[in-house]
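Pasting two entries for a bug report.
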Amino acid sequence: MPRSSGRQGELRETEGLLRERAEAAELRALFGEDDQFEDKIDEYVVVEYGYLKTTRYSFRSQANRQRERRWETLLYDNNTLNDTEFVAHFCLNRVSFFELITLFKEDAHVHSSGARLMCGGAELHLMGLLKWLSWSRNDNTCLKVGIFLGICSGSVSNYPARAAGAVLELEAVVIARPDARERTATTRHVQLAFGS
């Protein structure tokens, strides 16, 4: 049988205290005793019990709490990561980054479907890909990238893979291959300009 959490223990203690306080209040009412101080304590216990019921993560260590969305502060907050540091980390300035995001923001590779849930959308996927490509040697570990972006280190390698798939699908849209007529016109232009 698994050990109960600290929150469950606190809830049990508070429920027991509520029962005892309710019995004491019934006895006071039965004997006609009116004690305002005891009533205030009863109200405090009810409020504390309600607080415990609404807090899901109380009494958990900081390591078990859901991580903050650190990647959003890195992307949108200039105080956390200025433009020079952003270029140093991602090899791309913010303006170019957002222009690149507009190209594959609606791609199926970077959005959740019913079968797979993922956070971050296109921004986090592209940040993961650029961070993965910009780091070298032994610095490029899933743990370090996960800590830097504030995501789970187990899913770090999925983000660059999905972003790379989305970028590769853009090849047909962004890169236009010249047809035969354009190639001959370009060849003539080069021959006239440089002589052959």
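Entry 2 (this is the one that rendered wrong in the viewer):
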Amino acid sequence: MAGRFGVRQLEPKRSLNQPSCTRPQIAIAREGDLLTKERLCCGLSMFEVILTRIRSYLQDPVWKGPPATNGVMHVDECVEFHRLWSAMQFVYCIPVGTNEFTA
């Protein structure tokens, strides 16, 4: 099919070097870029705010639980978040058997 069309027919009518946006659009894009750079320089990144909030949630004692009775780790119960998360990931990654999956 590529042989039927000439290269000239497939080329766009505008050159790639020619901007296809208006002056107000260019001004808005430059202003947005400047505001983003200013926010990043001031530390006003949304990503940083979200990570800080998650850190404050995870520092809550409810995620850590009480100290282990044996002084090392909990054996009979799972009261620490990272152990629960690890166990959930392990179970999730176990391959499904031939007769175990039902839709």
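Dev reply: Rendering is fixed now. As a check, the viewer should reflect this: The chain has five helices and no strands.
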